[in-house]
Amino acid sequence: MSRNNGMDRRQLLKLAGLSAAGLGLTAAGCGSGSGGSGGPVTIRHAWWGADDRAKKVQQCVGLFEKKHPKIKVKTDFQQYPDFWKKFNTQAAGGNPPDVIQNAVTFLRKYEAKNVLLDLAPQAEKGNLDLGGFRSGLEKFAEIDGKLLGVPVGSNSMALVIDEKVYEKAGITPETGWTWDDWYAALRKIKDGQKIAGDAGPYGVMYLYDLILRQNGKAFFTEDGMGFGEAELLPYWTEALERVEAGLYADPGKVEQIKPASATAKGLSAGEFTWDNFSVRYSAEGSSSYGLAPIPSTDGKKTGQYLGSLMLSGTARTKHPAEVATFISFMTHDPEVARIMGYDRGVPATTAQFEAFQPTDAPSKAIAAYETSIADAGVLEPITPHPAGADVIEAAFLRIGADMALGKTSPKDSVKQFFSEAKTALAAN
């Protein structure tokens, strides 16, 4: 299966829910440079990611400072776990960065602790432009009437496949295929090529959320868990059986090759992940890789939604207007899109979306994939995430991995997970 062909730009505009009117930036999008403070100020921006992202963000910051000479931006980046450790320390000490890269799993956690800045007043004052976003994304970080972040890009869950393995097996995943179809594909690949069909999806919280959503539930509610032991036990029991049967990759080998992916290293024919993560596979592996649709229970409802990284201000900032001006620039300026590409997902605004037209195969595939799921009409609102969701996500991944390695039984793993989830929710 190949998803690397060129795309119809009108199709992608349809996905974005865009219009020609959205191509213009308002005065709020340009910002005033000093946000009305009158003098030069310095704000701090922190994010997580690899060195390549850091270089790109630094370029964007340099461009911002040239266009807004009265605002200086001091930068800091870490790997994902280290970022949050440092941020928690800074927030506890009352000295967090002014602007941070953020994700939906952290919104309620830090909103409850009064760490995040409500950006709505800055939008009302004209310092933050909320126009020209792809349909619904400007409301992605609205919590209890507060605007706690602005999206910089979008992504959705997908199945990354080794196209050569799937082609050899004579399998072409198409929109509308079911979990039974997917399972049959795993068996055919295992029997015919002696390769595990999947890396092992049992610890991927966002995938399990889609499975639950397909069946009328969800991983989270606004206040807690949206499912119980009765749902998780058969899922993890079945997962262990598939590990033992070789349908899922050997978890010990998967751990050994990290941070490389199991599919890129030939341990499996596919794995579930965010679509914009797929850019890594060509660099890590020697095959060709594509994005396949998410299977569903009934061949129709996938439970999918657009996720997003975002930029959030912090409540202790002394320069909320400048923070808003910076965020507005990073989400609207066309040159930022040309620098960042799809590093943080498909650009969230019209101006940036139109500014960056991918030429590399992985980015074209991402855009084509998001076009296809939009045309299929499967996108829904994102599931709410309560405070503590980040801890619960980490527990789901860790406990699922331990179970697959044979350290604990599915029954004990399920009980441990819900015990840790209860503690995480109570602590927030």
Question: How are the SSEs placed, and which strands pair?
Answer:
Elements: H1 9-16, H2 27-30, E1 41-48, H3 51-67, E2 71-78, H4 80-92, E3 99-102, H5 107-112, H6 120-125, E4 142-143, E5 146-147, E6 150-151, E7 153-154, E8 157-162, H7 163-169, H8 179-193, H9 205-214, H10 229-244, H11 251-257, E9 270-274, H12 279-284, E10 289-292, E11 310-313, H13 320-332, H14 334-340, E12 346-347, H15 350-355, H16 361-375, H17 389-404, H18 410-426
Parallel strand pairs: 1-2, 1-3
Antiparallel strand pairs: 3-11, 4-5, 6-11, 7-12, 8-9, 8-10
Helix pairs in contact: 1-16, 3-14, 10-18, 17-18
Strand content: 5-15%
Largest sheet: 5 strands, mixed
Please tally the β strands and state the result: 12
Structural class by secondary-structure content: alpha+beta
The spatial strand order of the largest sheet comes to 2-1-3-11-6
**Radius of gyration, CA atoms, in whole angstroms:** 22 Å
Gap between N and C termini: 45 Å
N-to-C order of helices and strands: HHEHEHEHHEEEEEHHHHHEHEEHHEHHHH
Overall shape: it is: globular
Organism: [Kitasatospora] papulosa
Pfam family, one: SBP_bac_1
Protein name: Extracellular solute-binding protein
InterPro entries: Bact_solute-bd_prot1 (IPR050490), SBP (IPR006059), TAT_signal (IPR006311)
